[in-house]
Specification:
The complex is a heterodimer. Chain A is α+β, with helices and mostly antiparallel strands. Chain A is built from 10 helices and 18 strands. Chain A folds into 2 domains: 223 residues, 3-Layer(aba) Sandwich (Rossmann fold), CATH 3.40.50.300; 100 residues, OB fold (Dihydrolipoamide Acetyltransferase, E2P) (Beta Barrel). The longest helix of chain A has 18 residues. The model of chain A has no long low-confidence stretch (mean pLDDT 86). In chain B, a hairpin with a 2-residue loop joins strand 1 and strand 2. In chain B, helix 5 crosses helix 22. The chains are: A alpha+beta, B mainly alpha. Chains A and B meet through strand 6 and helix 3 of A and helix 7 and helix 8 of B.
Chain lengths: 335, 544
């Protein structure tokens, strides 16, 4: 288990990582999510031993590692763009760490290439690979000596959208198959959801929220976190009660209005439905391949996003009834 | 069609100049060897190459240049690391200091080393005066800056992440160096080594002052054969031999030189804090600094010494012609001549160098065009390696009859020096111009800028500093140029290096002191110019 206690890192007096405490249990994958410049990459580099700490401790299985140089920590780091060694073939890249330890093994390399789905690539040079293939090779290289912790720096960000989604699923499967404990940093909440079990949200050098990914998703700690997690708007004031009251089945049930300071709603939280309890006027409608996206003016709630089935037709000024999907709203207890 | 026209137009001037003032003299010199009496006689050339002395000279050239190159590279690597990768206080100043030897007049360096290693010198007890060790030390002193510059520039822009990735995979610092850093630096190291070998193998002033007659390289042998023994056939044979070797080496260097990818994002790594593991590299750096400082310090102290103790009498004597009328004009006159010549040489080298640099860096649209530009690039690098002595002597024998009777023209010396400085200018400008993304010019053009406006908006802001640096570099190089100048300078208008060489060879109590004082003045002038250039922070200066 990786344990960070009150870790701080500063560059020339500018604090990049501020008093961060985190835990990554064995076999789990923690995603550190945050906007660019929030200090998440610095945190990763500090764990890898590439940046000195200004305060705090890093321990693995209870043993402090902050004094160890990078190559003695037994953590593998995978960079955003793979950082394959351009002068070595794929097989030599993957076998690099094995050779360092004096036990080169062609079988192990073949096994790793099979694990990442790149059989037959052994003799290719990195320059001839696509971005996704390079990341797979980098992953195989990092896993070669079964590191006790795998650090992933935006592993999928350099790839295009379709590939990113596919590789995210593969990545999770590969990491679970290998039983690897991993910590990855990313600015993309979808990437985090696809790969990780646990989530830590970082902002301006601090961890503002952490926990199992479902818990964080269901209850963002504040407005900014909610927006960063992909919620479209955060409703406040009387709008909260109005929308909660429109939740079918249990008005005011688990989501008691008085305990909630704000309500984060996804873009698809309100659905056009003849039996819906909310009434509004369509401001604009836009068709997408899957559904129709509406912006609706709902009385005291104000402008909200809503969705309607693909085959429905809406024009500005029309009246629409909306139903609330309770799985797509999240209460925020402190704004 | 228009592209080819522009290419031809830009190329005409420099090609003509290099053709008339480089190819013509050098081939004239070579022809003198193969057609000794108007009849083709390659036999004579082969006979020359079979002479035992020639074989000895050739072997000495190869091994002295080889060992000097090896030492310069071995010492230069840790220095390049310390000065370009570590957050060492005052590293800019150290970098500039290390560049000074490279532009110091060769004669001055020779004088300084003899003073340091001579019987009365501080290191006289080593008994190295007049030995090959002294020559090799002098060559290393000269060329270590080339290694530090070239490798340092590559190291500075080297992505640190592959090394970090290797460390994260469990590689110790030594393993990271052997498996990741060294392979990445190899092109820069090999290219620096080939250039240093070239400089060492064609070194003239140093070998002449430190080796005397006993230890000669091909270059000094050519000088000896032409000026003392008047054996032109042998001299020509050696010139050809040197030319072949140099062209081959230049070919290798050009192949290995990493061409900057204009579209790649180049970043300079933040220098990192010093760690205890850096101690050996820092120790080597200090050692190199001492090695570089010692001859210079000895020279300065020596110039301030007379028989009656410390005084500036040697400097006062610079207004005289020396004891026993060693010179025709006072040293101060020679200094004026030197500066005037250097100014002329600088603008010539700059005008040519700029045209050449623009020529070879423009993006080619067809394979034929690219090949044409490649050939031109190699063509203009020729003066870098061809012996300045061959050039000077070639001037004398080919430019002495109408329509090109330039023997008495005051422009002869500047033209020769400009040719010697041309590769320095080109190599400073090419990386800068080559690094400008062509799409910037295309963007300017698409916004309605004419080619000239685009040049003004895109190229000029990037290039003015390197241009200034290149002119300083050319100026310093021409101030100290000795090989070609020693042939071409007329006795009544000598330059300072020529005067120094005459003074050390001329008996008379004041003459040696005057030579030292003149050396200090010349060294100071070039050092000041170089330090000013260094302040411009152009990374490609001195990186070949």
């Amino acid at each position: 288990m990786l344990t960070l206690t009150d870790v701080s890192v500063a560059y020339d007096g500018v604090v990049a990582v501020d008093d961060v405490s985190l835990e990554v249990p064995d076999g789990s994958i923690l995603a550190v999510l945050g906007p660019s410049g929030c200090g998440k990459s610095t945190l990763l580099r500090a764990i890898a031993g590439l940046e000195p700490l200004t305060a705090g401790t890093i321990a693995f299985d209870g043993v402090g590692v902050d004094r160890l140089p990078t190559h003695k920590r037994g953590f593998a780091l995978m960079f955003q763009d793979g950082q394959l060694f351009a002068h070595m073939t794929v097989a030599r890249n993957v076998g690099y760490a094995l050779r360092l330890r004096g036990r080169p093994s062609d079988e192990r390399v073949a096994e790793l290439l099979a694990l990442v789905g790149l059989e037959g690539y052994a003799d290719r040079l990195p320059a001839t690979l696509s971005g996704g293939e390079r990341q797979r090779v980098a992953l195989a290289r990092a896993l070669a000596v079964e590191p006790r912790l795998l650090l992933l720096d935006e592993p999928l960000s350099a790839l295009d959208t379709g590939l990113r989604e596919r590789l995210a699923v593969d990545l999770r499967e590969i990491l679970h198959t290998a039983g690897t404990t991993a910590l990855m940093v990313t600015h993309d909440h979808e990437e985090a959801f696809h790969v990780a079990d646990r989530l830590a949200v970082m902002r301006a050098g601090r961890v503002v929220q952490s926990g199992p990914i479902g818990d964080v998703w269901a209850a963002p700690v504040d407005t900014e976190t909610a927006l960063f997690l992909g919620y479209a708007r955060v409703l406040t004031g009387s709008a909260v009660a109005t929308v909660l009251a429109a939740v079918p089945g249990h008005p005011g049930g688990t989501l008691a209005a008085e305990a909630v300071a704000g309500l984060a709603v996804r873009r698809s939280a309100l659905v056009a439905d003849e039996d819906g309890r909310l009434r509004g006027t369509v401001e604009s409608a836009r068709a997408t391949p899957e559904l129709v996206r509406l912006v609706v003016d709902v009385g005291d709630v104000g402008l909200v996003d809503a969705v309607a089935p693909r085959d429905s037709h809406w024009g500005p000024g029309e009246t629409v009834r909306l139903r609330v999907d309770p799985t797509r709203v999240a209460p925020i207890r402190g704004i | 069609m228009r592209r080819w026209l522009t290419l031809a137009l830009l190329a005409t001037g420099p090609v003509l100049v290099v053709g008339v003032f480089f190819v013509l003299p050098v081939s004239g010199m070579v022809a003198r060897g193969f057609w000794p009496d108007g009849a083709f006689d390659p036999r004579g050339v082969l006979d020359v190459l079979a002479r035992p002395r020639v074989r000895r000279v050739a072997w000495f050239t190869v091994w002295s240049a080889g060992s000097a190159t090896a030492i310069a590279v071995l010492l230069g690597l840790p220095v390049a690391f310390v000065l370009h990768r570590l957050a060492l206080p005052g590293r800019r100043l150290v970098r500039a200091t290390l560049l000074v030897p490279f532009v110091l007049p060769t004669v001055v360096v020779g004088v300084a080393f003899r003073l340091l290693l001579g019987e009365a010198g501080p290191l006289g007890f080593l008994g190295l005066d007049g030995t090959p060790v002294a020559i090799i030390a002098g060559l290393v002193f000269f060329n270590i800056a080339v290694v530090v510059r070239a490798v340092g520039a590559a190291w500075e822009s080297l992505d640190t992440r592959p090394a970090e990735a290797a460390a994260a995979l469990g590689a110790s610092p030594a393993q990271v160096w052997w498996t990741v850093t060294l392979p990445a630096l190899r092109p820069a190291i090999v290219s620096a080594a080939s250039v240093v070998f070239l400089f060492c193998a064609t070194a003239f002033g140093i070998v002449l002052t430190l080796g005397g007659v006993r230890y000669a390289t091909i270059e000094t042998e050519i000088y000896l054969l032409t000026t003392t023994l008047f054996d032109l056939q042998a001299a020509a044979a050696l010139s050809v031999l040197q030319l072949v070797v140099v062209v081959a080496l230049l070919g290798v260097a050009a192949r290995l030189r990493a061409t900057p990818d204009a579209t790649a994002h180049r970043s300079t790594a933040r220098p990192r804090a010093i760690r205890t593991g850096d101690a050996p590299a820092i120790a080597v750096t200090v050692l190199v600094l001492i090695m570089v400082a010692a001859p210079i310090a000895t020279l300065v102290l020596g110039s301030l010494r007379t028989d009656d103790g410390w005084s500036i009498a040697n400097y006062r004597a610079l207004t005289s012609v020396g004891s026993n009328d060693a010179l025709l004009v006072p040293v101060t006159d020679a200094l004026l001549t030197s500066v005037r010549t250097a100014v002329d040489a600088t603008w010539m080298a700059l005008a040519m160098g700029l045209a050449v640099a623009v020529l070879v860096t423009r993006r080619s649209q067809s394979r034929a065009e690219r090949r044409a530009r490649g050939i031109l690039d190699g063509f203009f690098m020729l003066p870098l390696g061809v012996s300045a002595v061959t050039l000077g002597f070639g001037f004398l024998i080919t430019l002495d009859q109408p329509p090109l009777d330039l023997r008495d023209s005051p422009l002869l010396v500047p033209i020769a020096q400009a040719l010697v400085a041309l590769p320095l200018v080109v190599r400073t400008l090419v990386p800068v111009l080559g690094a400008i993304d062509d799409r910037q010019r295309q963007a300017a053009a698409s916004l309605g800028a004419s080619p000239w406006r685009a040049l003004l908006a895109v190229d000029l802001p990037v290039v003015w500093k390197p241009l200034l640096a290149a002119s300083g570099f050319a100026f310093a190089a021409s101030l100290g140029e000795f090989g070609a100048t020693s042939f071409l300078a007329r006795d009544e208008h000598p330059t300072v290096p020529v005067v120094i060489f005459r003074l050390i060879g001329h008996p008379g109590e004041m003459n040696y002191g005057m030579a030292l004082a003149a050396s200090v003045v010349l060294a100071t002038a070039t050092a000041v110019v170089m330090l000013a250039v260094e302040r411009l922070r152009v990374p490609s200066v001195g990186a070949f």
